[in-house]
Amino acid sequence: MTHRFNAAAAHAAPILLDKAATLARACALIAEAGRSDVRLLGFAETFVPGYAYWLGLYPPVAQREVMLEYAAQSVVVAAGELDAVQAACAKHRVNVVLGLSERDGGTLYNSQAFIDEQGRLLGVRRKLQPTLSERSVWGQGDGSTLKVYDMPVGKVGGLICGEHSMNLARHALILQHEEIHVSSWPTFATMKGDEGWFDSHVDALSKVHAYTGSCFVIVAQDPVTRANLDWIERKLGPQGVLTVGGARSAIYGPGEDFVAPPHTGLEEKLVIGEIDLGRIQAAKLQHDSAGHYARSEILRLVVDTEPKTPLVTVKKTARSRK
Hints:
Distance between the termini: 56 Å
Number of helices: 8
Radius of gyration: 20 Å
CATH architecture: 4-Layer Sandwich
């Protein structure tokens, strides 16, 4: 395993509801990461095909046609729609956590795809609980994907946006000895009513996870571009709540310090910082939440990792039929 390496947050916007173009954009960012000697790259929430910012802006009945289009532009993993991204990871030797809206059958999931530098899809983690109006779009994930993945750079986990307020979900990753955490968000910093608290909210949760988990935290957000906002208003009409801009991407160290200081606004870039896994042991000597600071004889976390499905088939044995 590499002891020191460069990691990055992709502070970049998708081409809203254009799956093919946004996947190509992801591949271009992976190539840029490779040229910059970045070994691990994290993306914003549902980078492909873009976050559904309109959910809280218009009545649900007005969103039907847009949501049909959103479903069509969501990623079908089983159909090989991540093949180009996997090939880019292998070509440029970059490990990636990619935010995507995933379509499985007739249901959408807010997901993170974990792809290693050999181009292997290690797994797709689904958001456990969509937040507020997101519940009308994305289904709930289950405990089967709440896991930390062994990547060539270390043990990598992730959560999406409001999941960071689920303390037990965070702790489930900590107990799996997570070393690097990819925190995928949209931005609500330019949404009327959220301007004053959103960035400080993300900052606080990121510091808490970095400190309590003795891990590094990569925060990736996407700014609201003029082109994407125009697309929303062209489809759904004028609104006065969301404006252009926002996004705050950074990388935190286990001591709540910045490995890469926050970058904000419309300028798109890879926010790059050096991760030194050697710092984790020093942090854990003080607070090892998966070890001496767990007090497992008093406090234990139970996680149901069984995949949940509405169809369970039971085969009767010859003995049971008698």
